[in-house]
Amino acid sequence: MSAMSSGSSRRVRSVRWPGQAIGAISILVGALSIGFVAGAEQRPAAGSGDRPIRMLQAPPEELGQEDLERYWSTATEIEMAVLTDEEGRDLYALSRELERASELFERVAESPSGDPSGHWRAARAVWLSGEVLPLEEKEEKLDRFRRAEALTDIALAKNPDCGECMLWKFIAMGRTLTTGGVMDAMRALPEMSKLLDRAIELQPNHRDSEDNSTLGNLYYSSAIFNRLVPDWIILKWMTGVRGDKWLALEHSRKALELHPTRLDYRIEVGTQLLCIGTAKKKPDRLAEGKRLIEAAIAEAPEAETEDERREIFFARKLLAEPKKACGYTGDDIVDVDAEAKKNKGGKRDKKSKSKR
Q1: Are 168 and 152 in contact (CB under 8 A)?
Q2: Is the CA virtual torsion 285, 287, 292, 297 positive or negative?
Q3: pLDDT tens digit sequence for 188-240
């Protein structure tokens, strides 16, 4: 039993995974945004999501290998059908289908002869079940995001070195903060930072497709995290965490090396350069960032999804106002310094500026 085929060149709709982390003590820490594009070897057959599953209520230890493989296959088909066919479909029905996929993945993970990676796949499916719901369904969304985080905790208890689990815990934590309020963000920052650092150190090898992998998304997540979280020393004193724009640039480039055709990764490298160019007064970096974003827009295929159209919209906005690049979240632009001053967060520490 394995995850989705890595040999696919078929593009499916992208799913943005935004989270937000705003610090207490009157300073804005930043907004976190995760991108993900999933791929599948082939489009699921029509109606496959309604396929009956025999022995669904059977205890995990009673399931045979054939049943486990069918559970996994059906759960994957449901997940991919949602990713490819969301537009025009009932969002509540999609959410229910994804909850079913999560249950199937979890059944496989709990079986003695099953695949333990089913835990994080279950977390991803239930997370998506909340993500597709309308914004007004706040409590339902929160329930799904919290369940996703709980599933990653189970997975990490069984395998503390599961890099995929760490990525999905990071994503679930960020989205819970976004949806439920960000008062606990300051306490969450150290754990979120450690999750990214440790997962990258582990170099997980899961790939969903040619243009999507866990490691690529980890580098991309770390790039955005380190760009958005301010590099103030006072933040380091309070949380043990501070941003690092040069590390953010390095990680954005590593993500792009892994998946050079990803539009969001290309725009992120350009965004990092715009951010450094304006924040660190590096005109050469600023010019390079503009060139990269202009090239990404010019060479991008026709935008087929809402997410791609949004990426291009914000890329053009950043070209017009590059000083806002440090606060670009993927879904919005946050002026971190302005928010800090507004909330009397104090001045930025001048010593934190790199001489690179």
Answers
A1: yes
A2: positive
A3: 889 999 999 999 999 999 998 888 899 999 999 999 999 988 888 887 888 88
Q: What angle do CA 85, 162, 227 make, to 5 degrees?
A: 75
DSSP string for 297-343: HHHSPPP-SHHHHHHHHHHHHHHH-GGGGGGB-SS-B--HHHHHHHT
Look up residue 43 and give its DSSP letter.
Answer: P
Give the CATH superfamily of 14-348.
Tetratricopeptide repeat domain (1.25.40.10)
The residue type of 138 is K
Specify burial of residue 128 (Cβ count, 10 A radius: 0-12, 13-18, 19+). buried
Q: Going along the chain, which residue ranges are E strands? A: 14-21, 30-37, 207-209, 212-213
Between vectors from CA 341 to CA 335 and to CA 343, what angle results, nearest 5°?
100
Q: What angle do CA 138, 141, 146 make, to 5 degrees?
A: 120
pLDDT tens across 64-122, in order? 888 889 999 999 998 887 766 556 678 898 899 999 999 999 999 998 888 889 999 99
- Give the global pTM: 0.79
Cα separation, 212 vs 216, whole angstroms: 7
What residue segments make up the domains of the chain, in order of their start? 14-348
Beta strand pairing status for 30-37 and 14-21?
antiparallel
What is the C-alpha to C-alpha distance for residues 6 and 255, in angstroms, rounded to an integer? 17
